[in-house]
Amino acid sequence: MKRFTNEGHILICFDFDETYFPHACTPEQLASVRRLEDFLEQYSHRLSTMWVTGSSLKSLREKVEQANLRFWPHRIASSLGTELYHIDVDGTFSLEESYQALFPSDFISRVERVASQIEQMRIELEAQPGFGTSPWIRSYYIRDQIGSWSETLRMLADQEGIAVNISQCNPQAGDPMDAWDIDFYPIHAGKESSVRYVCTTVSFLRKETYAFGDSGNDLGMLAHVGKGYLVSNATEQAKQMYPEMTTKPYAEGILEVLESDLSSFI
């Protein structure tokens, strides 16, 4: 699969699952994705695209095949923004190794210390599918907990010098019902950090950068850029925490924004 042909000076960032890629993959949804791809290819001389996702690269490839997508973006920040890839026009992937240079070598040990303390508090951490496949992220589910456990978890992660994302699970993306998504990753990684790194190193203007997402782990990225939006199918937790939202879901919501702003980048 090839990449969008050209590359412009306006960065557009997409969460993948349930934003760019609809898990239901209905014919109507996929038709909207095709229209979005056509739009991004038509204006690729003005735009630079980036998928910023919690999915691993392996999982992304499977979903790309499932939806029969036609184009790779210019960059992918996978595994919750802990792995950053640049993609050449012929579809060749190159890992941005300098991005990971700031990550602590003892990251896994730090996570294990936090996990041990949490479990001593009788809070069960359930390893998510794919646990351990990436050296820079450890993801768990927590179910049916009440009280101030989230504040304690953030405090313990902060003491170890690592970051943690805590967001309500989205069953539409394959998560369990009534559970919380817990992701540990290095402080200099994550969705927001990967976007900040790309803006800085490639000289994209933050105020002109777009981002689209659907859940709590997208909110930092949306707030960081000049033009951040939740799509209308976003989780209720995300909608309560972030004000800017499209009126349409998935690709239709993305196109709603980009087509209305067309004059600003043609």
From TrEMBL:
InterPro entries assigned to the protein according to its UniProt record, in alphabetical order: HAD-like_sf, HAD_sf, SPP-like_dom
Sample GO molecular function, one term: magnesium ion binding
Keywords (A to Z) from UniProt: Hydrolase
Taxonomic superkingdom: Bacteria
GO cellular component: cytosol
Domain annotation Sucrose phosphatase-like: ranges: 10-258
Keyword Magnesium attributed: no
Protein name: Sucrose-6F-phosphate phosphohydrolase
Organism encoding this protein: Exiguobacterium sp. (strain ATCC BAA-1283 / AT1b)
